Amino acid sequence: MSNSMPNSMDITPPLPPSTPLYLVHFVHRHLDFRMCEFDSSIHLSSLRPSDVYKRSTFSMIRPFLICTFPSDSLALEVVGRCVLVKGVGRLLGTGKNEKECRDNAVEEGRIVKMEKDKSWKFNFTTFGWKHSKSEQMSIINQFIPLVDFGGPVRMKGADVVYEITMEYPVTIEGEPVKPRHDHNGREIKENMELGPMMCYFTRFIGMGGRGMGEKYKLTKRKYLGPTSMDNEISMVMCLAGLVGKTSYVCDPFVGTGSILFTATVMGAQTIGMDIDTRVLLGAGKEGDVFTNFSLFNLPRPDVVRMD
User: Model pTM?
Assistant: First the structure.
């Protein structure tokens, strides 16, 4: 029996089937900051990035990274802080096409028998390509026999979610290198014969921190200014600074408080300074530097007017 996943992201040395492998799915956004955020979250969980993944296996323009974590809960803890991560799944098999992926899942023996009362469903995801519904079902049907299902199918709120992910090459802007359709919506015949870069078979564990980014995005805040920082960038910055419940964060140019807002969300004690009282006190109906904190029931920062 082979002990290594046959793909370009192999973790070395070869790992036994008992070692839990995970597939982390990043968003194709703020590419320069994704690994900084991920590494910082790993540190906050008292782990070392070198123990979680091999740096040489990461590519800036590929959104997938194979990792190893001690447990599902730790994997979810790490990705749950990251606004640039879509989610994480327990890796069951990989291959350069669906057949290789299916055969690898069987060979590695990573599929665990489901409990009898657990409901289930399959999801299909494509990155850099478009599959028709019939094509998706054809591929899903190749994987269904691998799983010893215990309970009923449930499309919403299933206990166990299996995911098949097909990865195709994209540009740094996220556009398909070999698109399926031209600008008129017609299929490009020479591209139709191209296969994926990689096929992944996973059991979904949980979402990344995208929900936190959505909850606190700028459009949901009342007090903003021309220099209010993008909420995702402020979250990445705070995570890069290992901000947590034991942190004390000082912003000497606080402005409308974007950095301190995020630091407070992460549990830090905060203080800010600014020379411009107009920014701190606001302009009447728009509120002031404390407005957004009150809106989300967050502790107010200490603010000092100073140069």
Answer: 0.86
